[in-house]
């Protein structure tokens, strides 16, 4: 017998994965990766080295100690940026193009901690003890901190950022007149160098665009230092004496010292920094087109906490995402997180070169002061910009912002006032930044989060536009379910379409999903809206009481329209009903009853747009004569109007 030959096996070609790579995860070619990474380093460099310079000058460190601080700062910045952009495990690092740097928020509190501990290296070790503990607290509390951000609305964050800028301006002014060790306000050379550096920064930002504008501070420092050299103000002995290669060692200045007051002060700083990081994460997510949720914020905050603790060990300071580099991502439109990772590698390498740190340490005080004036004033302006989003017709917001700024400037102008406090409180409240921040946070809690349970007369918290992008599906559905009278899948569908670049785009998505919903779903939603005719005949027809709240949402008016949160439903949304006399009320009730019988759903009217009594009655009569299909569409339009008004009330 002949053996039967086996059938040839058929090999199907492997199907290649066609899933597109998101620009955030794309890796540029090596040449571009290096150029883009160095661009981030240049934009970041000036802001990175200012903090150790200011701190060293304030607490009395010598030049060699300053050089070590600068190198340790850059080295740790590199590690922190790599962790934030690449990620470490599943829970650390947001994996977005975010570069880490020392936060300006910590400058004034660290100076206060260092001076209270005696200055010099003793003060530095006390600072590091507080930094290590605050970093650990931030790391382990990150998921909870992400949920507590509702306690930091724009009135708090704007006040805090404004306070940071204003409280740091005296530090810049001290450097501009020669530094804390030998100030000479009457020296015309110091004045010329400081104002000249500031002028260079302003001119570069005015003349140039794009990347060149982002390195204006660095250019100002370089040109200012060159201008100061002929006058003998640039000492390069430290550069000559420094090694080419050096590694920062853990606890170089001694074992950390732990002070409860210092730790509490630094925890406050990290809470403020958490708000800053959240804003940067959300902004970057919008720029690169990637959804950011509360889990992403938690991962970013864990990276902040880990980097801060590492900073305390490696002789550096608290870390946050650098806003300058967020702006650079927007300018260049280079979204790859691997570019930031490359920048982290470059910073790590620069941190191993003590001569680079020594060169930075040689920048004269007046030049540094001129650059710092520009940077810190810009921080204050960012705070003012944030405060512009606040509703100051609510007097509570005026009290929160005014008291926070007032206390901060009081402590900043008269720092010795802290001596009237117990020793433990001097470190916490001896800094204008922490004092103002504590006041703003405390008053916000007092006015908006304590007291009696919210009723129909109270104002539910509005949602900042940037906060909406961080909500998960359940939170989003719960918050934006307030736009409608009854349960509907519309918010869940809108969430699945996100994130949205602007509040207008989010608003449009709700309208689109409402009109695209199945007819049965639309009819079910219509049935949840109150019957206008039945309500005008009730005891509250004239609008003498607030409408009942729905799920702690905005107060509802009788036609399903929303009231400005916390305002009675009268005299604005019910104005048309309040003007109706008895005959008009009876006619409207009859029209509404006939309407429901004809179409099978209530007469829905958006009272904010209904006009006066005559217009309201005319609308009801006209709609009664519409064909069913047309009136179905008209009812949807009214629901959309109501949802639009509620959206404007809800989203800030």
Q: The biggest beta sheet, please?
A: 2 strands, antiparallel
- Average pLDDT level: 77
Percentage of residues in helical conformation: 55-70%
Number of helices: 28
Instruction: Indicate the overall shape.
Output: elongated
Q: Which stretches are poorly predicted, pLDDT < 50 over at least 5 residues?
A: 1-17, 452-460, 533-576
- Radius of gyration from the CA trace? 30 Å
Q: Helices and strands, in N-to-C order?
A: HHEHHHHHHHHHEHHHHHHHHHHHHHHHHH
**What is the count of β-strands?**
2
Task: Report a brief summary of the structure.
The chain is 63% helix and 1% strand. With 652 residues, the chain is mainly alpha-helical. The chain is elongated and about 95 Å long.
What can you tell me about this protein's structure?
63% of the residues lie in helices and 1% in strands. It contains 28 helices and 2 strands. It has helices spanning 30-59, 63-86, 107-116, 120-147, 154-176, 188-207, 211-214, 216-228, 237-241, 260-288, 294-313, 323-332, 337-350, 354-361, 365-387, 395-413, 423-429, 432-448, 465-468, 473-480, 490-497, 503-516, 519-526, 532-536, 575-578, 582-599, 613-624, 628-650, and strands at residues 100-102, 319-321. Strands 1-2 form a two-stranded antiparallel sheet. The longest helix has 30 residues, at 30-59. It starts with 29 loop residues before the first helix and ends with a helix.
SSE layout:
Elements: H1 30-59, H2 63-86, E1 100-102, H3 107-116, H4 120-147, H5 154-176, H6 188-207, H7 211-214, H8 216-228, H9 237-241, H10 260-288, H11 294-313, E2 319-321, H12 323-332, H13 337-350, H14 354-361, H15 365-387, H16 395-413, H17 423-429, H18 432-448, H19 465-468, H20 473-480, H21 490-497, H22 503-516, H23 519-526, H24 532-536, H25 575-578, H26 582-599, H27 613-624, H28 628-650
Helix pairs in contact: 1-2, 1-3, 1-8, 1-13, 2-11, 2-13, 2-14, 3-4, 4-10, 4-11, 5-15, 5-16, 5-18, 6-8, 6-15, 8-15, 10-11, 10-12, 10-17, 16-18, 20-21, 21-22, 22-28, 26-27
